[in-house]
Amino acid sequence: MKKQILLKNINYLDVENEVIKENVDIFIENDLIKEIKKSTKKNFPDFKIIDCINKYAVPGLFESHAHLCWLTTFENNEKEKILEQFVHKGITQVRDVGGPFDALKKMKEDISSNKMIGPEIFYAGPMLERSPLHWGKFNEKLPGFTVSINTEKDVDTIIQKLQENKASLIKTFNRFDLKIYKYFVKEAEKINLPITHDPGAPLFNSIPMDLAIDLGIKCIEHGKAPWPSVLKDDLQKEHNKLLNSKYKPEEYQALAMKIFSMGIDSISIEKLHKLADKMVQNNVYICPTLTVFNKSEEKDKETTEIVKTLYMMSSFFIKELIKQNVKIIVGIDSCMPDTFQEIKILKNLGLSEIEIIKGATKYPADWLNVYDKYGSIKSNKKANILIVKENPLQSIDNLEKIYMVFKNGNMLYKNE
Is the distance from CB of 59 to CB of 361 less than 8 angstroms? Predict the structure, then answer.
């Protein structure tokens, strides 16, 4: 028996044309949007009618930098409650950028089979880098959280596992041998899996952001990523000389502290704008995760100052990239449904309401190659819809004034 729902007299955001279309009827059949028509007084007896007059429909949101595997370390009822909260906040899809296959597959299957309520999960599986593993200690609690890629054979092995485990993307992280990285990119293209790249530490990246773009990478993680690519010439010369020499921790630390103390004075605005132009020309996205650096206190004073500097620099880079029309994807680097924290920061940096919403709907769907099903409200797409009480284009805060949330055509939340 068909499940048929009619959202009557609703206004909806057309993200492609960046406009609100007023007073329409959205017909939902099973898990899909069947049709969108101008609202009429005609009766539809086969449909359950929900009056949405003066309400606004937005595509279900993406959280685009999650590590949901950490939820498996919580009590089971707490894990289920958190996953349900994603949906209650209108986050109907998650792009997971690092965790063990088994944990993520099980979570996805339990949600798909309705054992628990949660978002649709698009996962990368393990974080991948050259040995020694930066986050290797996490493999004790979460075996397979991060995996070494040192040879072409390692690439072939992980590519096979990515296919077998039905990954939707690949996450490369931190250190890589350049020859191996080029081989990895080529092999990933063969199986049509997009790679998102986190260059790693704030400085001394083996695959820095500009090089990753030249190699064909279309998404970069973290707002700090531009830093080593846009240093002033004298600092970049010193930086690159150290990077290509035998590792000397004390020299690395001395230069890093010098650059950190200079902050914005360490960079070339001209280089930053050229990097932004390269991103726009190559249709490259960035997921800033500014929330993760927006902390006031750490364990010690030195770490606190480093985190403050990272937040300042990341915010500066993203503010400049926004001015240059670089596409921003919304994510927070967490296992929690706190995406609205990132949204507020991006708004304060000058990102418009429509670009924020596209960064949480259309852009991640485009990058994941699933825009035929997700990311906009359109006929034959998944009926993942966030309904809010006020116009989100007038104020991004209105995205939190939630009235209802639909996922796969099911009303999973209603604000009474």
Answer: yes
Predicted confidence at residue 299, as pLDDT, reads: 63
Could you tell me what percent of the chain has a pLDDT over 90? 91
* Longest alpha-carbon distance in the chain: 76
Measured in degrees and rounded to the nearest 5, phi and psi for residue 386 equal -100, 125
Q: Do 114 and 66 fall into the same domain?
A: yes
Q: Are strands 146-148 and 127-129 parallel, antiparallel or unpaired?
A: parallel
Count helices and strands (H / E) in the chain. 12, 18
Contacts of 178 (CB under 8 A, 6+ apart): 206, 207, 211
Q: What is the pTM of this model?
A: 0.96
| Count of CB atoms situated within 10 Å of the CB of 79 | 20
pLDDT tens for 396-405 read 999 999 999 9
Strand, helix or coil for residue 8:
strand
Q: How large is the average pLDDT for residues 335-341?
A: 97
Other Cβ atoms less than 10 A from the Cβ of 357: the count is: 24
Residue 74 CB coordination number (10 Å)? 13
What pLDDT, in 10s, does the model give residues 226-268? Answer: 999 999 999 999 999 998 887 778 899 999 999 999 999 999 9
Q: Are 112 and 40 found together in one domain? A: no
Structural domains of the chain, count: 2
Nearest residue to 94 (alpha-carbon basis) of 292, 415, 365: 365
Burial zone of 14 (CB within 10 Å; 0-12 exposed, 13-18 middle, 19+ buried): middle
d(CA 45, CA 4): 10
Please check whether residues 200 and 322 belong to one and the same domain: yes
- What's the CA gap between 20 and 36, in Å, rounded? 13
SS percent in the chain: helix, strand, coil, step 5: 40, 25, 35
Please say whether the beta carbons of 377 and 12 come within 8 A: yes
Task: Name residue 55's amino acid.
Answer: K
d(CA 412, CA 406): 6
Same domain as 392, residue 361: no
Check if the beta carbon of residue 288 is closer than 8 Å to that of residue 222. Answer: yes
